[in-house]
Amino acid sequence: MKSTIVFLLSILIFTACGNQGEGEGNVIQEVGQDISSRVANEYLVFEGEIPCVDCDRIEVELWLEKDSVQETSEYWIRTVHRGTHTGDIEDEVEGVYTKLVGYREDPTATVYQLNPGTNEPRYFLLNENEGTLSMLGPDRRMMEEDDDERYDYNLRLKRN
Questions:
Q1: Which residues are within 8 A (CB) of 141 and not within 5 positions of it... i.e. 6 or more apart?
Q2: Closest CA to 48 of 139, 159, 160, 157
Q3: In Å, how far from its chain's centre is CA 71?
Q4: pLDDT given for residue 3 in this prediction
Q5: Burial of 153 (C-beta count, 10 Å sphere; 0-12/13-18/19+)
Q6: Does the structural domain 44-159 have CATH classification 2.40.128.640?
Q7: Domain residue spans of the chain
Q8: Which residues face 77 on adjacent strands?
Q9: Concatenated DSSP letters for 15-30?
């Protein structure tokens, strides 16, 4: 009788512990989903492949903080230079960007400037429509297209 009670208590304890672990897994999954949805709600994500002078191509993934009420917002960019003489080179940079109005061909266009007021390289991206950013040169003119039609200077909206 005593061994039966011990056996039943053991089963009860293991069952209770097992159920608690399953609940924790659900909580972790819910937290992960919450973070993903929050990030998706806070950032626009663009990606594309652009021409490269000393490599095959550059893969670009750009995250722009959206709906910020501040003068500058945060960005994060990941680039992978494919096919360099030393192999693929990956780089990640974060900083701030600001919205400007107008560029040479369209005085009402929205242009995103990465790294305003810093010593870092500044990049200009023209918001041509809600789904495409076109890279502009330092003079804020459209970049000349490369002969290789597989790549252009456009980043397309991946997630908003």
A1: 103, 104, 105
A2: 157
A3: 20
A4: 45
A5: buried
A6: yes
A7: 44-159
A8: 62, 93
A9: HHHHHHHHHHHHHHHH
Predicted local distance difference test score (pLDDT) of residue 24? 54
pLDDT per residue, tens digit, the chain (160 aa), is 444 444 444 443 444 454 445 555 555 555 444 444 455 578 999 999 999 989 999 999 999 998 767 778 999 999 999 999 999 999 999 999 999 998 888 889 999 999 988 888 889 999 988 799 999 988 888 887 766 667 889 999 997 7
User: What is the rounded distance in angstroms from the CA atom of residue 95 to the CA atom of residue 118?
Assistant: 10
Strands, E assignment, 9-153: 43-50, 57-65, 73-84, 87-103, 106-114, 123-129, 132-136
Burial of 148 (0-12, 13-18, 19+ CB in 10 A): exposed
- Sign of the dihedral through C-alpha 147, 126, 44, 58: positive
CA distance 132 to 153: 10
* Element of type H or E holding 40: helix 2-42
- Selection from 132, 138, 136, 139 nearest residue 158 by Cα: 132
What is the pTM (predicted TM-score) of this model?
A: 0.70
